[in-house]
Design brief:
The chain is of the alpha/beta class.
Amino acid sequence: MPINPISSPASVLKGKIPGAESGIEVRKTICSICNPLSHCGIDAYIKDGVVIKVEGSKENPHNQGTLCSKGAANRQYIYHPDRIRTPLLKKGARDSGEFEPVSWEDALDIIADRLLRTKETSGPESVAFYAGYPKWMRPFLKRFAHSFGSPNYCSESSTCSAGALLASKLNYGVAARPEIPKSKCLLVWSTNPFYSNTSTVRKLLDVMEKGLKVIEVGPLITPVTPHADIHLRIRPGTSGALALSMAHVIIEEGLFDREFIENWTVGFEEYRAYAREFPASVAEEITGVPADLIGQAARLYATTKPAGMLNGPNATVHHTNGIQNHRAITALVGLTGNFDRAGGNYVVPPAYLYVANGLVTRQQEFEQSRPWEKMPPRIGQDLYPVWCRLIPEAQAIHLPFQIRSRKPYPVRAVLSFGMNHRMWPGSDFMRDSLKMLDFFVDVDLFMTDTARLADLVLPACSSFERSELKFYPEQYVIWTHPVIKPLGQSRPDVDIILDLASRLTPGDSLMKQGYEACVDWILAPSSLKVSNLRKYPGGYPLKDVRMPPYEKYEHTGFSTPSGKMEFASTILKDAGLDPLPRYQEPKLSQHSTPQVARKFPLILTTGARLPMYVHSRTFRLPWIRRLRPDPMVDINPIDAEARCVSQDDRVRLSTQRGSIRVKANLTEVVPPGTVNIYHGYPGADINQLIEPDYLDPISGYPGFKSLLCEVTKTP
């Protein structure tokens, strides 16, 4: 009988069809390449212990079978030749880049010996603990740092989401996210979910199709723009002036929520008086947005109830005036009565690793194993007291300054997980600061430029090679199982932390019990247990989860010093800072530094995201790199013509601090007078062109998105 070629063993294997004939098995896991609010479910096709194919898990409610370009490239991520497969000890000078393999036992003993000696001679605070990417190990690293006695746990949140959280806490004591399915209007301010959180876009489009009104604010044209009823195309760094002008329209036309303002706010009259300085005509001069559009947007947002506000995690705070700008933006939520109300911005505390789904856990109690008052002051606490009052970690952006100054005490050693020194403004300043340390350890999947600076490099696992707890906002939970064995001698980050804890913090009895016991302790209020989660490799929906009520402030007040929403911040006033969300020009702009603008007339904004890249981690993947292989500066055709620049010309992008060579990309995505460059490209380190101290004075956040530059054609 002839063999059917479609069902022959060879065709089954070629088609990667799972089953006994092919020897292919489908195992469930998650993709952890991008942010923890996503982490799509994965069906991993395994043949002989190797991942041969990945697909999105259809039963996972978050991505429903879809994957972005990053998730689709997971095999290239896992098996990339840059993967570190054994612990490596530095040979020669700090920047020699030469290593030799060592055993895990020797590596951990060396780290324990060096950190204990540093603690004995300079105190535990002289050791800093840093968490970059991925984020799953953060509760364990923070607990480890505090059990060691160091207040200096810090993370990439020092330039990411914590700045916006800080601003929201100053206004409300807490952050709130839009309840989009119930919204009638959505104010999208400087964020692009199509690129930064693709798995949520389908749900957003569903609501748009039902008539959701959309107001978009931001200088760039994004995939949101065609869906927007109004696009307010601001000059970068002027969000605060625009928000105050919208507030002026809302207040003067009586469109604000009087009951909420009278009963639940302080500082309204001072705020109202200050907003009068920003009529639409004045705001047009500052922001570049036509006055009539400002009025239209303000009225649409204030009168379409309920209305939500969707902010990016960092775009509005990546300015030297960022915190006050973001305070002015989020003040509009309370002004219009949309705070903690159905379809507005709803307060749901995070359950675990930034994900809010209604469950209650003990993550914060687990992390904070030692109270702040029993530890020395944190890195940056002298310069950024408001940050250290409201954000429970050190300010990592100040780390290179303290390494160099050794004040108020020396920082002599750093234990980092996934550090990228190019996250810092003046990235060469941070790189050279790391060279000044007595001892530097980096844990990573890949041999990055930062890892090459370390004395010891430890190999970490991908999400395919470990177990971890993952919550989804759709009230879904998964405890993942390793779908392949760890590559080489790589190990899960948490296992590394727990092994070091057994040597350095033997008094921490909870961490002694191991990873799963710690997770069970964290989950105790939710009644979930790892032993039960383990039975569902693909995860399962949570049942009978009671979401918190709306308008919780009516029973508990606000978590601010006054117990109310604060248009005028008590905390800022106590710190000697302006309590109102006062607008100031970026430190570098045509208005604040006209003498600089004469030589560098273009506004430079950086850090916006392309859908296939996450910082610098996915540039090494061939599939993805081909989508945009060369570093390019986006420049409007009007500005390009004035500089005799054509598409793909080699150009020099210059600031006061230096220059890089890139290609020109002519596009109307950027408005005239503004250029944009995506960060992280190898060979085009844009952050090297930014002064290390170009920072917001309240948060310490870098002004990545409003500087001055020039573009010139080169041979």
